[in-house]
Specification:
Elements: H1 10-20, H2 29-36, H3 54-57, H4 65-70
């Protein structure tokens, strides 16, 4: 995708990466768990994105069957 996503807050960086792939960060279990542990936020409205905005580079990735099933646990 010719993108570099970087930052000092790993949970926020992963959240932005998920959003760029068309996956709502609040549906990514490890990000939600990390936020509950106080390790950072996965809520995009609390994350400052510098450079290209997510909507300008977003592509919808197809999710695996397993990831769809795990949403319900």
């Amino acid at each position: 995708m010719n993108l570099v996503i970087a930052g000092a807050a790993p949970v926020a960086v992963d959240a932005v990466g998920a959003a760029v792939m068309g996956v709502p960060p609040t549906e990514v279990k490890h990000l939600v768990l990390a936020e509950k542990k106080g390790l950072g936020t996965c809520h995009l409205e609390k994350i400052e994105v510098v450079g290209e905005q997510i909507e300008n580079v977003k592509r919808n990735f197809r999710r695996s069957f397993v990831s769809k099933v795990l949403l319900h646990f």
